[in-house]
Structures are given as C-alpha cells and as structure tokens.
Please model this.
Amino acid sequence: MFILYSSMLKNSNSYWFIIIIFIFIIQTIILKSELTKANFTIVVLPDTQYYSAYYKDTFFEQTNWCCSCQNKLNISFVSHLGDIVEHDNEKPKEWIVAKKALYTLLKCDIPHGFLPGNHDVNYNIKNEQDINDAYSMFDLTFKLEDYKSKSWFGYQVYSNKSIRNNFQLFTAKDKSETFLYFHIEFFLSPILGEEKNSIIRWMNNIILLYPYRSVIIATHFVISDCKNNYYIQEEFLWLMKKHCNILFIFGAHSFKCGGERIVKIKNNCKQNRFIFVTNYQNRDPAKGWLRYYYFTKDKICAFTYSTQKNRFQFENDLSYFSINRLNMTLGDGCPYIKKYHYCKSNWNSFSVLAFVIMSTIINYILQIYFILV
Model:
C-alpha cells in the first residue's frame, strides 16, 4: 500500500487530484459544522394509525430515525399529533406496536409528547361516568409512572392518572431557546363537553407561568386541510391571539385535500403566527412520511421527509418552505442547507450492508484510477 501511494505522488496529475479532493472534504466539513452549530430540530409525527395496524416496521423506523439522526440534526424534540393507532381500544396489538415505537424515544432520551386522536378513543360509552373507559388503551400504554421522573414532562391531573393532555418544557440542543410544548386531545370529541373549558383554562395558566418561553400547541384537529373550509377550533385560536409567545399550532386529522395546509394568524401583538396541518396517511402509505422543522438563527426550515424512501418532497410549497424569524413571513425554503439533511436510520440492517459494499467498490475504483494515471 505504501509503494502504491508513493507512486501516486510521483505523478503530478495524481498529486493535484489528491489536493483537490482534500480541499473539497475540508470545505464540506467546515460548512456542515457551521450549519449545525446553534441550530436545532423539532420532528412531527402525524397520524401513524396505518403503521400501528399494518406497517409496524415503518413506525419503528420513524422513531429509530429520530434517534439515529439526533446528533446530526440536533433533534431537540419529537411530537406525535394523534391517531396513534387505527382501531381505538379494539386491537391491543396495535398499542403494543405504538408503545415499542414511541418508547424508543425514551431509550435515546429525546424529549417528546403525544396525544389521543379520534382513532385512539372509544366513543361508544353509555354515559359520562364511563369516560375513562374511552381512553383505556391509551392510558394503559402511556403510563404516568414512565414519565413522571422526566424533568421535561408535565400533565393535567386526572383521577385515574391519565396523561392524555400533557406539556413538555425543553431547551433547544444549542441552548439558544426554551420551549413550552402542549399536546392536547381531539377537541371535536363528542364526550368532552364542558371539559374543554377546563383544559383551556389549564393551558392558559401554564402559559402565564412561562412568559419567556416560546410556545407550540399540538392537537389532533385545529382546521381542515381544505382551503375552502374555514371551520377552526376557536379555543386554540383564542389562546394564540392572546399569548404573543405562542409561535405555532400543529394539527393533523384531515387529508381530503392533500393533508397539508398553512394558515397565517395575527395575534394581539400584531405579529404573524401560523397553524400547520400535516397528515400523510394517504401519501404513499407505509413510506414513513414525517415533517420536521429545522431552526436556525434567521430561519425555520420545514422539510417533509420519508424515512422509507430516504427522500424529501421539495416539489410542493406546502411540504417544503421556510419562515423568516425576524418578521415571521413565509419563504420558499432553505436551499443552502437542504443538501446536508440526508440522514438515514440505522434500523435497516440492509442499509449498513449496502454502505460497506459501496465503500469497498469505491475503494477499488480509486485504486484502479491511481494505477492508471
């Protein structure tokens, strides 16, 4: 090997080739470090019910991707928007899949939250006395005892220790920003009734406790994905307008018009705020589409990514866009960083094998090139 590289250096063409490759590698490393320094990511998982029911490996890969890419993308938080399973309390096997997937985030110590969507609750209860039965599988799967020791986890108190409405306090990985992040159950639920008001009062009081934290609210439904449908959950809109530190509301549920929508709101401080709808259950089912928001000093970059295909959706301005952090206006993305955001999960052992094979092939090609030149 020493003789081979010595002969390479005697050839001026080989010498300059090595210098160019070396400079390129150094520039790439420097640029990557600049892009990830003082930046962080929030990942959003909407409507995984088909994964729990029919494509469990896709669900496992999504959360393993979060763990695998935790350092590269500075993933600070993961948020599930509800409809965790497909068949509410009827099929416990789906809840076993969901627990295995989401508890992966506990194992790799990523702060996260979740909430029950309409598919996670059994609404066929006879009276209000049975309301806890409606959430029985959710409560059995996501237990207070597994989260109460986490300094970042908070919850609304219920007599049966349910954590179906919860919040998280976390600091971005780059230490630049602190967050208060709510996960609130499906507000179109026919069994909530007056409990909606107590939930909103509880949220309002929590926000007042943390006036200097950026606030995000996640709920299963806030507005339709169809532009001609203007129905909105007024309770969340009231909170957003009242509290100027609420940045976004994330919703899911709707998919009839493509599963994505952006709605701009003016709060009482005359600042732009946004509601984002994301639901990929009908977009290439089993391909593991998710949304993540990459926060930089100047922009928030929204990416829609498939963990199965290892590709982004750049063609759609509802799937790929940016937000100017100074004036909170929408932009057309972050082209200067998107090429460095490919990050594959280590869940698929075939990917590791493919990497080894490709590395070996490239090594042989380079050796042949240097011999020939």
